[in-house]
Design a protein that fits this description.
The protein contains 4 helices and 5 strands. By secondary structure, it is of the alpha+beta class. The protein has a 5-stranded mixed beta sheet. β4 and β5 form a beta hairpin.
Length: about 120
Amino acid sequence: MIPKTPTVLKNKKQPAGKTALDIILKTLEDGKAEDILSAPVGDRTSLTDTLVIASGTSVRHVAALADALEKNLKDFGEKPRVDGKNGSGEWIILDTGNAIVHLFHPETRLKYDLEELWGIRKVPA
């Protein structure tokens, strides 16, 4: 008798109606990331649909945010590409395809100023 192969359900932990972007933003909020910015950029590039930029309060905080994002996205069924995790911790990038997340140490964020580069400045409240 041949045993049945179990059915593997992709995204079995995926909450109904949630997207990878929802997971990203919730993880950043829960992790106390600062100055979270999410902007649609699909009309300007074919690389991604959404650009997310956030800051941690220290290089350890940036690394912890990246770890949490990577875990939560994997639990969701996404396999993000991660760059900068083994570096200084001042800038870590996670790419899901539909969203690219830039996590910065505050000084590094000011130095590279991606908001200016992409023209996505936050409007003061």
